[in-house]
Amino acid sequence: MKPAPFRYAAPTTVPQALELLAQHGDEAKLLAGGQSLLPLMNFRLARPSVVIDINRIAELAGIQQDAGVLRVGATTRQAALARWAADQPGWELLRAALGFVGHDAIRTRGTIGGNIAHADPASELPALLLCLDGSVLACGPRGEREVPARELFWGPLTTSIQPDELVTEVRFPSPGSGAGWGFEEVSRRHGDYALAGVAALVACDPDGRVLDSRLALFGVGDTPLRATDAEQALRGREPTRAAIDEAARLVGPALDPHADLHADADYRRSVAGVLAARALAGAVSRCEDGRVGATQR
Amino acid sequence: MGAKYFGASVPRKEDERFLVGDARYVDDITLAGMHHAAFLRSPHGHARVRAVDVSAAASLPGVRGVFTYDSFARWMKPLALFGAVPPRLAERVAITVKNVPQYPMARDTVRYVGEIVAMVVADNRHLAENALDAIEVDYEPLPPLVDMVDAAEPSAPVLHPEWGDNVAVAFKNTLGDPDRALAGADVTVRERFHVQRYVGMPIEMRGVVAEYDRRAGALTTWNNTQVPHFLQQGLANTFELPTHKVRVVAPDVGGGFGTKANGYAEDVLVPLAARELGRPVKWTEDRREHFMAAAHARHQTHDVEIGATRDGTIVGIKDRIWVDLGAYNSWGIVLPYNSVAHLLGPYRVTNLFVDVTAVVTNKMPNAPYRGAGRPEVVFAIERAVDCLAHELGIDPADVRRRNFIRADELPYEIDMPYRDGNPLVYDSGDFPATLEAALAQVDYDAFRAEQPRLRARGIYRGIGMAAYVEGTAVGPYESASVRVDLSGRVVVATGAASQGQGHETTFAQVAADALGVPLDWVTVVGGDTDAVPFGVGTYASRSAVTAGNSLHDAATEVRGKLVDAAAKLLEVAPDDVVLEEGQISIRGVADSALPLGKLVQASLPTFAAPGVAPPRFEAEAFHHVPTVTYTNAVHVAAVEVDPGTGLTKILRYVVAHDCGNVINPRIVDGQIHGGVAQGIGGALFEDLVFDDQAQLLTGSFLDYLVPTSMEIPTIENVHLHTPSPRNPLGMKGVGEGGAISPPAAVANAIEDALAPWGVRITATPVSPARIVGLLAARERERARVHA
Ligand SMILES: Cc1cc2nc3c(=O)[nH]c(=O)nc-3n(C[C@H](O)[C@H](O)[C@H](O)COP(=O)(O)OP(=O)(O)OC[C@H]3O[C@@H](n4cnc5c(N)ncnc54)[C@H](O)[C@@H]3O)c2cc1C
To answer: Do A263 and B286 touch (CB under 8 A)?
Structure first.
């Protein structure tokens, strides 16, 4: 379990990193926290001939709140963001999601940008980004572009970021005050990748009807997914237990999950529905004008 | 013997060095000019090796040697085999055992993923692994054997042509008249139970460093084996050297669990390369290799039929057992016969039929792992007893109460020999008392009372129990020596090397008491064949009993010598000598005390006078242990299952056990905790999965799930102490027991939690997907019935 031979470069600026990417193209791999890349290299499943370490690019790390958008530099550690979110009102969903990413040791090295760029379909943060309608900032030889989450995830470990591009920033829009959140995940053990998981946001009008509902799923497809039918089914309705269950029942049948050693496709389909109901109920109970918490529990 | 330390939870003497990072494992050993080895392993479950081309690899920078079977042909001798049938067992049970030699490297055929095809030695491990990439092997895939039941069929392709079939071990045994008994039963249950392949995952993987001294014609190897003396014999054999020219050192070892008690190819190949190249060579197993090529374990299928009368009295059991041995029969009868000898456990059942078939398949060979054949049979029988209780409508605790052998029935003989050929006679214990202690600790009645109320609220909790009676402390002996040095301090040496069990503490406790010295005056050494001429090793819950009693004998003898010498020095009768706290004194004369060191020094001649006594304050003992002693336990698990997700949470885990007299209760607790954690791993998580091509799918910790501290509940131990009459210290083994019952107890609890659905748990690990699948199938069935 030693990596195949590679050359190592450690640029200190984004232009230098882009220059190296341009020079080595497909042969190069960016190294952020290394928590996903290095195991692949040690198994010789990834064999980059050049490793470009972006940890020394100071401008890539940092957290900023800007007009309701949280802008997180790509090499910001997951643990740093979790620490930041620990006492930030309005970011409970982010905090909850980060709590499910691996373990302390992993989060101490693993980065936000690396996590999104790695695009594991069972990963929490990509689903969260999708739930919040967030985006990433990518820099490349053709300049800088903002890629919305909806256009980012193409398949397992595949994104629309090009090999000569670098993710510089991840942008999480605020869920908005008054919205309730829910986050549910099933994994075999604490800290494992999800067998299935759900992030939910619900906002209600003063009459207690659902204004907006969002449901992002992970671990149940090639990419994180929005459960649009279920979202739609709740909008404009009173979020009673029955309404939630009805919406959640739409989740499973719309999925085409993979099977692996840990769970078959039926399991993932069925549990996605169960978790969707729980996450929605959680979101409604936390929602300012939601009623489920008051009347239905 | 004063019992100052025996029975006390003194802190472990070895812990400080482990905790501060001063331990010295095989991988910490670096010798001048050392090279590093890496192995090319078969990627196929079954294939003919048509050609191996190492020329490109051999010419890479830093590569010192590339070896195949042919390179070492002169020295390729079969790996060690264990588990022959002892004559007195053969007289009673007709057992078929087939073997074929397994060589350290594949000759023309590979029979499991991970089998060694070639070896590279280079300046460092990176270069060695690069060279592996450059070796070209032409494989011709052959049909693989994957499923153990299929492999036993006469129509299956044959793995070792010389056998004619794939059955490596076969025997039947009958007690009483099981057919008649079962025909007369009011209720019978038949079920097939399956225990998956899983194995210990020591944090420290295997490792070998070897150095051949050409001048002395002697080999030294550092190897984290559990059995240094077995390895020494094996290497002496391979290298055709006298035993004393082979030194095996097992330094600090980070976990063994049986996995490190095998004869492995790497044990031989690393020393062969060291001799060939005239340089020390190191190999450290990586986790990928460990999954493929360190012994696997468990893996049995049981077709059980069990019957009882209406009142819950079990009248008979039949069990057809398949054991998946992997590609070679390395351990003979050990696993299959262990399962049979432990089948009845605490149950008073006199009608039994077993039919055992151990087969070879295209997998890494199977070997004993903490429990060694017991967890599998306990799963099958304790699950079957719960199914029976369910059919009878009697609480599972009451079925056990009715059928457990009572204390006044002991010694209790089961009419079959133990694996060592001696009669199978339970020597000690009170099985019903153990059961009641466990149930009281968990407050069984309160749980049962609350269970329906919680169910009504949609909370599904269940409780399950599983008992075992375990033959522990396999003999026939272990060596121990005791020597007092010039300062009066004590060196204890034993063949029972430690892999983390705390021997440096427990053996010091025994010696300190027997000698009458402070605990920290005793240094325990093990794991070095130069320090210990003969020995057996640490496995089979054996060291406290076998080495402990030898040590007690040796220390008592040394104490006698010290007292005799002191009598001469103090000019009193031996009866008037007091030896306590490392001081000798005349009974009743307080100011006569002298430290032990002064006595030893006074025993050496001076220019003025000869010593007061011969200065040989040492002794060696080999306490004979012809057969095992029986530890018993009852485990109880209380769980909550989420029917929506299939997740199981273990709420309580109680172990009531009786391992006789205990040297150090805290160490016993630790042994049980570790075992239970591994057992919970087997119950819920761990699974070595092969596909239909005999390809190993679980080659990393991403796929093979070992429980972490987050998955293991607090484990509550209740200790009962019925001393064994079979050894002077009254001890019984406890190393393995923790791992035996958890799969059965947890599965019983899960099935109990899911009682409203009426599903049956027949296999481990009980994953969330398996639970949700069972519930969904049941819901579909119900829907069909209602439609
Ligand atoms: C035991 C364990 C458990 C884990 N559990 C979870 C879990 O439950 N949930 C979860 O989400 N993750 C989990 N992870 C993964 C962890 O979160 C990783 O850190 C993360 O997926 C990748 O981030 P990284 O910074 O380590 O990236 P790296 O491993 O350094 O890189 C990953 C990939 O992203 C690319 N990359 C990195 N940064 C950029 C960038 N700025 N622009 C473009 N490409 C980039 C790299 O080239 C590489 O291909 C686990 C990891 C381990 C080892």
So the answer is: no
**A251, two tokens:** 């989740």
DSSP string covering B95-149? -EE------SS-SSEE-STT-EEEEEEESSHHHHHHHHHT-EEEEEE------HH
From the CA of A32, how far away is ligand 1's center (Å)? 8
Q: Residue B676 has which token pair? A: 């239970």
Instruction: List residues bridging with B730 in a β-sheet.
Output: none
**Which residue blocks in B228-373 are alpha helix, DSSP H?**
228-239, 265-277, 287-293, 334-341
Sheet holding A143-148, edge to edge: A63-66, A69-73, A166-173, A135-140, A143-148
> What are the tens digits of pLDDT across the range B219-250?
999 999 999 999 999 999 999 999 999 999 99
Torsion angles phi and psi, residue B575, rounded to 5: -65, -20
Chain B residues with beta carbon closer than 8 angstroms to that of A3: 126
Q: For the residues A177-196, what does the mean pLDDT come to?
A: 95
Please determine, for residue A289, whether its predicted confidence score (pLDDT) is greater than 80: no
User: From the CA of A4, how many Å to the nearest CA of chain B?
Assistant: 7
How many residues comprise chain A? 297
Do B571 and B667 belong together in one domain?
A: no
DSSP-based three-state secondary structure for B164: coil
pTM, two decimal places? 0.97
Bridge pairing between strands A7-9 and A50-53: parallel
User: Within this chain, do residues B566 and B669 fall inside the same structural domain, yes or no?
Assistant: no
Give the integer Cα–Cα distance in Å for A59 and A17: 12
Least Cα distance to B364 among B699, B68, B149, B115 occurs for B115
Close Cβ partners of B357 (under 8 Å, ≥ 6 residues apart): B152, B167, B169, B170, B320, B321, B322, B323
CA angle at B69 for the pair B67 and B72, rounded to the nearest 5°? 70
* Bond from prior residue into B476 cis (ω within 30 degrees of 0): yes
Check if A97 has its Cβ closer than 6 Å to any atom of ligand 1: no
B459 near A CB under 8 A: no
Where residue B500 sits, what CATH number does that domain have? 3.30.365.10
Please state, in angstroms and rounded to a whole number, the distance separating the CA atoms of residues B44 and B591.
Answer: 76
Domain A59-173 architecture: 2-Layer Sandwich (3.30)
Supply the range of the domain harboring residue B575: 475-621
Q: Residue B181: inside a domain, yes or no?
A: no
**Number of independent structural domains in chain B:** 3
Of the candidates B98, B678, B715, the residue with the CA atom closest to the CA atom of residue B372? B678
Tell me, yes or no, whether B10 lies in a domain. Answer: no
Residues B445 and B357 in one domain: yes
CA of A151 to the centre of ligand 1 (A): 20
**Three-class secondary structure of residue B409 per DSSP:** helix
Report whether pLDDT(A294) > 70.
no
Same domain, B244 and B373: no
Instruction: Name the residue among A157, A164, A112 with its Cα closest to residue A139.
Output: A164
Q: What residue spans in chain A does CATH classification 3.30.43.10 cover? A: 7-53
> Of the candidates A261, A263, A275, which has its C-beta nearest B698's C-beta?
A261
Is CATH 3.30.310.10 the classification given to domain A7-53? no
Q: Which of A18, A24, A35 to mutate to test the pocket of ligand 1 (most atoms within 8 A of CB)?
A: A35
- Phi-psi domain of B541 (left: phi exceeds 0; alpha: psi -120 through 50; beta: other): left
- pLDDT value of position B449: 98
Q: What is the predicted ipTM?
A: 0.95
CB contact at 8 A, B343 and B304: no
CATH class of A180-290: alpha beta
Q: Where are the beta strands (DSSP E) in chain A?
A: 7-9, 28-31, 50-53, 63-66, 69-73, 135-140, 143-148, 153-155, 158-159, 166-173, 180-186, 196-204, 210-218, 225-226
Q: Are residues B573 and B706 in the same domain?
A: no
Three-state SS sequence of B99-112: CCCCCCCCCCEECC
Rounded-to-integer distance, Cα A107 and Cα A84, Å: 13
